[in-house]
Design goal:
Mean pLDDT of chain A: 91
Structural class of chain A: mainly alpha
Largest sheet of chain A: none
Shape of chain A: globular
Radius of gyration of chain A: 18 Å
Oligomer: homotetramer
Order of helices and strands of chain A: HHHHH
Strand content of chain A: under 5%
Distance between the termini of chain A: 34 Å
Largest interface: A-B, 77 and 77 residues
Number of strands of chain A: 0
């Protein structure tokens, strides 16, 4: 079994889901990128008035809703990557490599000043 | 080998990355949710002035940048799920189930009117 | 009457609103910036599955909801600018000047290639 | 002089700016809503790793950049409202009224639990 099975399965389920509903017509990369952004904001909304510290200890009901939003983001991400022909896992591993070179541990340790990923 | 290996590997690499830089202190769920939202917008920016049709045929250089943004979104998603103790794959599969019940193929086929996932 | 009256009035109403509810404690610039971003996504959500062309002809009910989201964005923008001591109108006029220099009409006419505002 | 002069002026300047560059073709409400969301995220990015408390005391250079992002958000907001034929000030004042009824001061004072604006 390859390492991408969990995401490959999701990708297949999403293809069937859209196909059964004839929804692929709405799934241009542009629209999917919008949907992804909207879901990310719905996720963020759960944290907008709580402190950073309280965000570590969300009540169960709140965490369940956050869980659903995390799922929504992943689903649109997988669908968008599929429509663009992008290998998500490979891209992610490449990006960690790039970030490691951009932010050498010795230089940036403990500092948020350089904490960006571009 | 479990099906979650690719994501589990990413999760471990991200733990080491943050640990080596003493950056876990900045990784409250609140901050990670913000970062995720910011990356989703950077991804979306590549599509803001192109047509839906053109978004299906991005030039190679543009697609390479989009690839990086997709990676950034996945990395923050994996990191946030980790900090919250959420199983991303399980949550995603549950959500597809929920969506299938909310949007029965027979009822919504071809229509964007009901096309939301909440 | 100065030219900033409409926004100044909004600023005052928002100060009273927050004060009457003892909500200023939640109005750090960070939290307000998050709220603004969340509202912008709620606005965007109304457009995610419609075509650009259909977005010019929204049904009355949809337009009424979009109207409310536009209002939400403006309210958080005014509140955030107030908490940061920023003159929104002056900043906006300065930005148009800057954009005019960055994108001289003669050079960019008709092209979306250079259409960004940074 | 009406109270909307500052925003009316911005609206007129933005019409001329787009017209001189033949950019109105890209300014569908859908595209403008995307651009607005992208700018809101660029604004938010300045706050992603700082504490709420530090966000009240931004260094001058950082505040200058935040100022530009606030301007970008306002410009797209004014442009989008214009393309949709929406009176921003009227909508904003109506929304404050609505919020005052949804969140009576006596009931919600000091609590973030009900702090949402929908």
């Amino acid at each position: 079994m390859t390492q991408a099975d969990a995401l490959t399965e999701l990708r297949e389920r999403l293809r069937e889901f859209a196909s059964a509903r004839d929804w692929a017509q709405f799934h241009s990369p542009k629209n999917l990128a919008i949907a992804l952004s909207v879901e990310a904001a719905e996720l963020l909304e759960h944290f907008q008035w709580v402190t950073e510290e309280a965000s570590q200890r969300l009540p169960a009901a709140e965490l369940a809703q956050v869980c659903e939003e995390l799922a929504d983001v992943l689903l649109y991400l997988v669908r968008l990557a599929d429509r663009l022909g992008v290998d998500l896992i490979a891209a992610a591993n490449d990006k960690i490599e790039l970030n490691a070179r951009k932010y050498p541990a010795g230089e940036v340790r403990g500092s948020s000043r350089k904490y960006t990923d571009r």
